[in-house]
Specification:
A hairpin with a 4-residue loop joins strand 1 and strand 2. The chain has one domain: Jelly Rolls, CATH 2.60.120. Helix 2 runs antiparallel to helix 3. The chain is globular and about 55 Å long. With about 270 residues, it is of the alpha+beta class. The protein has 3 helices and 12 strands; from the N terminus they run H-H-H-E-E-E-E-E-E-E-E-E-E-E-E. One of its GO terms (molecular function) is cysteine dioxygenase activity. It catalyses: L-cysteine + O2 = 3-sulfino-L-alanine + H(+). Keywords: Iron, Metal-binding, Oxidoreductase.
Length: about 270
Amino acid sequence: MRIEKNVSERKGKQYSDWKKNRRRQRRVSPVQILYETCKQVFANCGPGVVPSAENIERLKAVLDSMVEADVGLSPNLPYFKSTTYDTPPTITYLHLHECDKFSIGIFCLPPSAVIPLHDHPGMTVFSKLLFGEMHIKSYDWADNLPAELTPNANSLDNGVEADSTGLRLAKVKVNSAFRAPCKTSILYPSDGGNMHCFTARTACAVLDVLGPPYCDPEGRHCQYYYDFPLANISVPEEQRGCDYAWLKEREKPEDLTVVGALYKGPKIVK
């Protein structure tokens, strides 16, 4: 009888532990899962080091499944409303986490808000549109084209005055509108559209993961660009059908206003 009782007690304890684990699993928030996945994916990465294809897919799968409710957002919050009509809308940034390996944050854009063309030096970036509609235009450097290609006044066809110094040729990677729900966008240090511009067609929220994050002391600062689209350019046969532009570095636009706000969604346990 004693043996049978011990077996019964052990089974009862095992079942109780199983139920506790199940309850704990159900309580883990999507944000916590995202954080834990990022810790694993970027553990052995650094500037210019891209996670393995398997880890890219792991993190992408987590982000693909996330919606605005997972981070405590909804389109009717004040972040997503334009308060002035004579200046560009203010963009709000919600900080979730940052360490030397990666950062997690959310950009909240009212209708017509623009995050100007900028780069991500040495970074792998995941961007998930949580809700709304957004136009994305992105570029990669076109360094493999003939060296004799040089900009001139006739090639700058967008009406903006600029001299030909400091211009660098880039190839359009993406030039499309995206509406949530949609898959996560991924860009790499030298591919996938490392320079991009976001334009909100409606109120929208973008969940961003950067690995590693920006860091001025380490030379990873956010550089902004003018772009001068090209109507005609002679390129090798395999490059035809692509759009190109001259990009030129610029200071941070004076009319760009990004303010920080307290993230009020599910907390990250570190």
